[in-house]
# Entry
Amino acid sequence: MSEAVPRVVIVGGGFGGLAAAKALRKANLEVVLIDRQNHHLFQPLLYQVATSVLSPGQIASPIRGILGKQRNTTVILGQVTGVDTGRRCVFVDSVDRTGVAIDYDYLILATGASHSYFGHDEFEPFAPGLKSLADAVSIRNRILQAFEQAEAEEDPKRHRDLLTFVLVGAGPTGVEMAGAIAALVRNALRSEFRRIDPTSARIILVDAGKRVLGTFPETLAVAAMRRLEKLGVDVRLGHGVDHIDADGARVAGECIASKTVIWTAGVAPSPAGKWLEAATDHAGRVRVQPDLSVSGHPEIFVVGDTASLDQDGHPLPGVAQVPIQQGRYAAKLIRRRIGGHAVLPPFRYFDKGSMAVVGKGFAVLHSGRISLSGFVAWMAWAAVHLEFLAQSSLRVSVFVQWVWTYLTGQRGSRLIVNYHESRSWAKPSIHDAASKGGNGREQ
Ligand SMILES: Cc1cc2nc3c(=O)[nH]c(=O)nc-3n(C[C@H](O)[C@H](O)[C@H](O)COP(=O)(O)OP(=O)(O)OC[C@H]3O[C@@H](n4cnc5c(N)ncnc54)[C@H](O)[C@@H]3O)c2cc1C
# Structure
């Protein structure tokens, strides 16, 4: 590639970063996409990994594989730690090096969000959130382990605590998780235990708001609420959690004993605002200009969950369509600037609607004037989610799994996998003893 070719650095291979990179595939420039994970993750289906419907490999694809045929694009596995806007470079930590500077002519930051515990970070060890594949596998372990622990527990008085699942936050993720745990206990686990009755599990969904699915129209929130109640979910609204520790959660003065509390509430943006020393909104998201650039830096764009932009007096929602459309827009703008063409009109988000699943074969859907709930909405949800998976192989695999799960109730990946604890219960094997010189000591 000639030295005169401008370089676009994209940080983040999520929805926004990937959309931008794909939209630059035919441009005469060099694209460098940096992500701290080697995979693009389809977050909307994370809850299905956490509840054993799908396995991690069915909702994530290597970024290098997705962009493998894009000749102008280099993928780098590394964590960006800062931006020098004067020198026009980002700093990257990789496996064996720190602070490596990568220069850019244009920069697109699409670094997403992480959990926010609303100032109570001490809750985190007891109430994991759901954001990455590792989070989903860890929550899956906790849920399945609770049933195993209860089955092994002779004292029936302890069964209730072990089989109480508390979900904090009744937005789409909390509602979907609650419905999926209810389906898990009613179908897959129902007949497999002898000492406990999995259907006796308590699923408690807590939210400080007055209704579930606060961003959906009232009628759909009511439909979702009825469905949750039908599934046996105990929905407690109007009070947030006051405290969470190893013994459970305290809600409105009541201590709910539980070994499995899951955080499905707030999100906090990445530190992109701090890297740029740019203006941010109250949540810490970078305030971007109508063309998604950062004030005073027409060469830097911020898109997706880590950007803040109002449209018609309302902030854009934290859903996947926003980063996808913004990533494409930023890429198009860069292409036009490089080609010397007229600038684009300001970015405008086209709202395709929102959906949430509530247990088996039931979803709520809101798009424009259409509000739907029930099986048809669930079919639409399934079709849309299949369409947006990153690769055809995943679409086929997820479709087959869903049909199988729907017909048989069986789950795709009901495994407890403690990656870091594989040796914790194991006595030294003959092989171990031999490798340690026969006496079990390191040599
Ligand atoms: C559990 C869950 C369920 C959801 N369900 C839905 C849904 O049903 N429908 C919907 O529309 N939306 C849903 N969302 C929201 C949607 O997934 C997000 O809005 C979307 O992923 C945001 O896209 P993004 O590109 O801004 O960030 P992300 O997709 O989060 O991508 C950010 C990328 O940046 C990388 N990164 C972050 N920091 C760095 C760094 N310092 N250096 C290098 N790389 C970095 C990350 O590894 C990641 O790959 C859900 C989100 C979650 C967590």
Observations:
- Confidence is low (pLDDT under 50) at residues 424-443.
